[in-house]
Amino acid sequence: MDSAVHAGSSPPAARLAVPLGHVYPWYVRLIFALQRRRYGAELESARIWGRLPRSFLALTLMYRTLDRRGSPIEPALRALLQVRVSQINGCDFCVDLNAAAALERAVTPEKLAALEDFERSPLVTEREKAALAYAEALTDPARRVEDACFARLRTHFDEQETLELTALAAFQNLSSKFNAALSVPAQGFCVRASPAAARDGDSQAKQRSAGSR
């Protein structure tokens, strides 16, 4: 979360910029419009992926199927898994965006801070630890998913849930490795989603309301 962009500062540029005047297909522009509605800005990663429009559309549709309301994996755990995979792959953009999602899904800042040492944290449940350990083994190129790791996972997740977790971890590896290689910068979403920011926003809204009376 330290990688989040501070208000008033300009984030560093990614290694590959979008050419000035680049024209995206209509369906990519539609995705951008949805992002502006959801996040208040287009995602820099999406602008780069959009230069491969058909791949970007497929990627977007795939993620929508994995991070859906009807997923058997609880929303908070999905976000935690994505943050942990992104941390391992060194993707500032993905850590920032997914940490913001975790905060919106009622994950506490303390739990997020404990994620890199989750096995020793009392804030992380045994179900979450099993999923995170599996995601770590799947992500770390120096490791493999050993039988013991998989057996631990299966004590908490059925077959369908295991498939969902595997697909989500694999997707996040694709996304975070792409963004990390191109040095896509964080956009400050985690700062905006923090409880302190929410309290400040509520306070400002109350002040504006009081001033309008």
Describe this entry's structure for a reader.
It is globular, with a radius of gyration of 18 Å. It contains 11 helices and no strands. The chain has helices spanning 26-39, 44-49, 53-66, 75-89, 92-104, 109-113, 126-139, 147-154, 159-181, 189-193, 195-211. Mean pLDDT is 87; it is low at 1-9 and 197-213. The protein has 2 domains: 22-66, no CATH class; 72-202, AhpD-like (Up-down Bundle). By secondary structure, the protein is an all-alpha fold. The longest helix is centred in the C-terminal third of the chain and has 23 residues, at 159-181. Helix content is 63%, strand content 0%.
**Which spans have pLDDT < 50 for at least 5 consecutive residues?**
1-9, 197-213
Count of DSSP helices? 11
Total of domains: 2
**CATH architecture label of the largest domain:** Up-down Bundle
Instruction: From the alpha carbons, calculate the radius of gyration and give it in angstroms.
Output: 18 Å
Mean pLDDT: 87
CATH class of the largest domain: Mainly Alpha
User: What class would the helix/strand composition place it in?
Assistant: mainly alpha
**What do we call the CATH homologous superfamily of the largest domain?**
AhpD-like
Q: What letter string, H or E per element, gives the SSE order?
A: HHHHHHHHHHH
- The N- and C-terminal alpha carbons lie at a distance of 38 Å
What's the number of extended β-strand segments? 0
Sheet of most strands: none
What is the CATH third-level topology name of the largest domain? AhpD-like
Shape: globular
Strand content: under 5%
Helix content: 55-70%
